[in-house]
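We append the chain.
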Amino acid sequence: MAIATIDPTTGKTLRTFTAHTAEEVEAKLKLADETFRTYRQTPLADRKRWLARAAELLEKEAEQFGRIMTQEMGKPFEAAKAESQKCATACRYYVEHGEAYLRDEPINVGGDQAYVHYQPLGPVLAIMPWNFPFWQVVRFAAPALMAGNVGLLKHAHNVPQCALALEELFLRAGFPKGAFQTLLIETGDIARVIEDPRVKAATLTGSEGAGRAVGSQSGKALKKVVLELGGSDPFVVMPSAKLELAVETAVKARLINNGQSCIAAKRFIVHESVYPEFERRFVERMGRAVVGDPMDAKTEVGPLATEGIRQGLHAQVEKSVAAGTKLLVGGKLPTGPGTWYPPTVLADAAPGSPAATEELFGPVAVLFKARDVKHAIELANDSPYGLGASVWTHDDAEARQFIDGIESGMVFVNQMVVSDARLPFGGVKNSGHGRELALHGIREFLNAKTVRICSGTVAAPTQASANE
């Protein structure tokens, strides 16, 4: 598949890139390995300063970075600028908290001294998707670089300019040349990079199929891997919910990033007593969502990232409708240039149809009717995925039932699911394993080394020497 910038609004190829040769990849791997040997000893004060500078650049140049994102994958420009600014918050989060997360943890074992000493693993390969082309990368890179690891980025084939801009960003921020590098390689070359003994771990955000492949390759090489995969997140609405707010949030949660988000709400499970009113309001609001030029501030939904994604989504809708699923709005493939797709609502998903069993990665919502809390939880869990869930209720007992009962990595009550540097992010079941962000994210790629010193024989190292 060509590594290229293709404008989703027109379908025109704007720029193509030549994949790195085997010799160029070897040079980058060699540089990453050599850089790690010295970078891991870099004082935390330097890492903090460079990460803070990266945050400044992400904010200062948000418009420039936003234009690249919009041009390459079609997200609304206002959202693209906000994504760059959000990346700055993640960098600052680890500037503020990274040192504490890396500090030795004392353990009481009686007379001896004992503690857990955290050390970086080495070069980590990050295989990242196109849908949040800056945020997905930075939420890995910020904690990894703070911890003393170095990064190798294999970005999606359709966002090469984003990938190269990120490499340049960290270099301009002050990080050593080999601390963060972009590999312009094909999917078929990933396995060889994972197998390379200089690469110590991998992380992937992507499809279930990609996760199975990278997980298998990493397992064969006996290397740690974090997988953040697909999601078919439930959005549950109970009678005690504030319906107007729930509907407005539901639309936003389904259409965010043109509907192309792993944590976008996709299955809307509504209690039967409020279902008719929710359906009426939701369908009306989805039907009038503004689809158009992603550079226009009024636009709510821009084009999908690629023609392949659009065709795949439409095929899922058509198969579902042919199987008996109801089409309430949208579902018609637009003519003309660009990869546009209308906000679409399906209901009464036919058993076994894509609407009932698959992730719909685009502005397509599926409505379900629930009899009670137990039934709502059963519907929420009737999916191979378990990433996030949004629950709308003002009944404390109900909220606790949903928090305990829904099989997911995250549950948000009376708000939509979002990623936040302060909160661990990840899923269960076919949504992957491991966590990004917060304390859990920085420790995924650290060696938690147990140290026990026989009492009275050797003095424990100072905290400064342990960290630096």
About this structure: Residues 464-468 have pLDDT under 50 and may be disordered. The domain at 3-229+431-467 is CATH 3.40.605.10 (Aldehyde Dehydrogenase; Chain A, domain 1).
